From TrEMBL:
It comes from the Bacteria. InterPro entries: AB_hydrolase_fold, Peptidase_S9_cat, WD40/YVTN_repeat-like_dom_sf. Residues 614-819 form the Peptidase S9 prolyl oligopeptidase catalytic domain. This is S9 family peptidase. It holds the Pfam family Peptidase_S9. PANTHER family: ACYLAMINO-ACID-RELEASING ENZYME, SERINE PEPTIDASE S9 FAMILY MEMBER. Residues 1-32 form the signal peptide. Keywords: Hydrolase, Signal. The keyword Signal applies. It comes from Pseudoalteromonas neustonica.
Amino acid sequence: MNFSSLWRGKAPRLTTTFAVLTLSTLSSALVAAPLDKADIKFIGPIAADMQLKPYQTEHQDAIINALLPSIQQPTTSITVFGEKLKWQTLDKVNALTLGGLQALKFTAHAERFSQGTLTLKGIEKAQLFIDGEKQSVTKESYELALPQGDHQIVIIAEQVANWHDVDVDFNPKAAIDRLTFSNKEQHGLSAKQLFDATTVSSLSLAPDAKHYLVAKRHYQDSTGNQANVITELKNDDNQTVYRFESGQPSNIIWSPDNNYLVYLLDGKLKQLNRKTLNLKVIASNLEGAGDFAYYDNNSLIFSWSKSPAADNSLTKHYQGLQDRWSYARTTSQAYLLDISTGLSKTISQGPLSHSIEDFNSKRGTVLLSRGVQVMQASTHPTTELVELNIANASNTVIGQFATFNQAKYTGDDIYVTAGPDFKDGLGRNLPENMLANNYDGQLYLLTDHGKNAAPLSREFDPAIGQLEVLANGDALIKVTEQDTIALYLYDKSKQRFSKLKTGFDVVEQFSFSNNRSPAILVSGSNASSPQQLKQLSINKNTATTLWDSKPQAYANTDIASLDEFNFINTAGVEIKGRVYFPSNLDKNKHYPALVYYYGGTSPVTRGFTGRYPFNLWAEHGYVVYVVQPTGATGFGQQFSAKHVNAWGQYTADDIMQGTQALLKQYPFIDKNRLGNLGASYGGFMTMLLTTKTDMFSASIAHAGISNITSYWGHGWWGYLYSGEASKNSYPWNNSELYSQHSPVFHADKVTTPLLLLHGDADTNVPVGESHTMYTALKLLGKDVDLIEYKGADHQIFARDQRFDWWDTMLAYFDKHLKEQPQWWQYLYPEK
């Protein structure tokens, strides 16, 4: 169900869900034709004894909007004021007049973007909603502009003189504007489902595993860009024992004695008694404080940041490379807070910022990391790991490292996650002539206060991410494993990695208990199934599902089928990929295809939804190929190391070779209707590919890099990322890399229509990167469009912008790959 209302200048362009349907009657003539009443569902009378209709009161919209969600649901009946009302078809309605309200519901299915006029006859007072969005009316008529897919239409009638005279007519704008109508509930996946559906936004499991806290987030039309979040405390029977209604807590921590839950809310640090549910305010005025943890039963350890006073001067004098960051001069120190009095005391001091890595209250020590100087002019800034003895305030330097991610105690030893080059290449598993990619995280063990170090994951291909330590000293780690995000257990005594059976392609969040048989609370999803919440048993390696979003948000929904598709490139390396197919795939037809990639140092993982909704694109009639080209982490160090000093060299070949292999494997894909797209480094790859091949008929680059030199010098983190992507290479010692691998230097070779998308507040890849390519292509007379999203940074987060962004990409491809320019012209009319 691909809902998009698209009322420019009125409500935001959206996309909805719920009661959805398929095809039956077709209006093809350019004259108004009534819908078959058998295709329209009817329910009523609703509140037959209603003395005044909503339009006769001061609260009409509020009353109707409150009823709407119940009407939208795919149910056979609703109960109003204790009376059960059943849905029937409109042709079964015999009464001339009815009291109260009545509702009509049906689906309009568009095979392509379609426009026309919907007219209500015989209904004197009504409100009409398409995909949950109220429509404006001109007399009895409503103007429709519906993208391909299923669209739910709801009419709530307040005044009807004679139901025998009621008709709903559709008049298409042109011969191509065809809609089919039905009352069935099965529908295709929609954008609104993907964005609005309830998801787990945070979770925390108590140390004894007898309670857990879970926050769930969803969106809806009435609140627009504002997320609706509900946080609940649940027991081990999955029953809610406490619900946060007035505000949402953050920084959730549990006391070691299992008696209390502490959290931040409304600027206050609060303590909830798990048995009595009594509340106590521990401290207030904690602006800038975070990362709270129980140091012991009597005190908390936390970080407290302080930003400098606002600078109202006319100029800004840069003190170093990091000064381009808005937060560069904010300092953070470690503090202890006494729970009984709320008194805080500092345990570290400036001018260097300190981050708390871990602590051991029995030994009275804290692991802190810090930069060796305030402004470090280096592509690999040095991190110093120190151990602080709280009793005497003495610091012991564990080491200084050019690559460092995280450190945790394990007994008397220390786990560290860092790149392969940690401690002079201790974790390298590469030929001597290859430079390591330090985004490929590795696990190390430091002993004897850092004097000795051992690599633990050198032969382990997954890239180490988040690290947690169990009570017995074993490590629980979240890893990137090819195109999945998995959980592994590292057994310290056996020096062995074991994969935990989560049942997820992508583990999103996890929390664990510290009892003898540790439990893990974990949320995640699969490429073709939405998010779930599960509890795992480490000892048994089993999982129990606690919550599943599919029945709630994706009932009666068609979801794309999926194939694994891998090929061997010309270098003899297997390149992984996957292919999404439209849910109604007919292999006797020819389909356009979209090729998506990132190409940077991370794979495109298999989450059900995300910024780039592969399942949605498939529902719009595209075969979608997601390829994992050379250079990504999670496939072993040699694979990721090829990202270094390549800037598209291997990646472009893999994408082109993979696309050719795809066409050979699936003959129902039309080779003349191929589109490609990517974002950030993937946007760079899109621009680069337009200079290398004409196999694609349309290309989209979001937040892409057109000039490696300007990105390196202007992007907030450009020089840092280039420290790996262009290791030891600079514009002055490797000008060929910086120029000849930059797409703008080959703009004259572009023949493919190109859409450039960018947030105008992007600090990561400045919007000038798209402007540079746009300027070049415009001067060359090429087919290029540039669209900026106002106020958006590197990613498009806001709900209204996200729907607009998704619509824009699909409309562009519809124009070039389906010869259907109407949607694009509707969104971006020529002036």
